Amino acid sequence: MRLNLFIYSKMRFVLLVFLLSFALQASVNGEDVVRLPQESNLINSVSRDQRSDKLDPKVIQLASSQNGSPDGNQSASMTSLNNFINFCSSKEALSAKLTNGTQSPDEITCNPIPMGMIVPLKNAPSCRFQQPKNFDKLKADTAFKMILKIKNLETGSFVNPKTNYFSAPQVLSKKTHNVIGHAHVVAQKIKSLTSTEVLRPDKFEFFKGIDVSTDEDGYSSVILEKGLPAGAYRVSTLLSAANHQPILAGVAQRGAFDDVIYFTVE
Fold first, then answer.
1. Is the model more confident about 212 or about 8?
2. Does residue 109 come out as left (phi exceeding 0), alpha (psi in the -120 to 50 range) or beta?
3. Cα dihedral sign for 50, 245, 167, 221?
4. Ranges of CATH 2.60.40.2550 domains, the chain
5. Domain spanning 121-265 has what CATH number?
6. With contact defined as beta carbons under 8 Å apart, do 132 and 144 qualify?
């Protein structure tokens, strides 16, 4: 009797574990995933391929094993036999701490996350400012709207920049093969419209990440409620993938993805 009870209890335990495991599993985009507890608004599904701590031999790139046989002014490439998976712990990384999803304005970091999917040139994004226009004159400290038209970017994907900065690869839309991401606009003051002074990236008057999708015609807008102080300005776009990394394309020779305009505020 005791043996039967023991076997019965054991079977119940095994069945319970099985059912619990089954309940935790789901299917997302055709992939098996495990649902993890939701903590701090982190992504709560991880595909099986992203839970392994071993490099799949199928993804090792042979190109990284040779330096490119540089000619003329070309430089020799760094080399690796394992896709640089341990680069951030190598001497070449200068003992930098891991980026680990955080921004680091004052120190170097090393990011071990792969670059991800590379967009073909026919799907590469492009944008132009529709408003203001080059050499417009705006009123100082007065609200105005920036209007941007964007092509070939699946906008509206904007992850938390405080916790997931550069923490995932660039990915493409299954439907369009366009990069999934978003746009930013940044206004920097310049001495004059004819100035050729090189600007500092850490100095700007206005910065805005656009975390909503474009309308059906590809337009996005940003309202500067307080306007800008008097002066001359360079305003640029920064198109990004979802985790705020610059867009990566499959061709080196290409046009710029971003737009720049110059105007004055009086």
1. 212
2. beta
3. negative
4. 121-265
5. 2.60.40.2550
6. yes
Tally Cβ neighbours within 10 Å of residue 166.
Answer: 19
Strands 25-28 and 31-35: antiparallel
**What is the chain's mean pLDDT, rounded?**
87
Strand partners, 223: 145
Is 124 within 8 Å of 152 (Cβ atoms)? yes
The token duo for 240 is 């990004």
Q: pLDDT tens for residues 56-109?
A: 999 999 999 999 999 999 999 999 999 999 999 999 999 999 999 999 999 999
What is the pTM assigned to this prediction? 0.81
Query: For the chain, percent helix, then strand, then coil, each to nearest 5?
Result: 15, 30, 55
Name beta bridge partners: 189: 233
Structure tokens belonging to residue 179: 């990069």
d(CA 143, CA 261): 18
Kindly state the tokens that stand for 243.
Answer: 């985790």
**DSSP assignment, residue 170?**
B
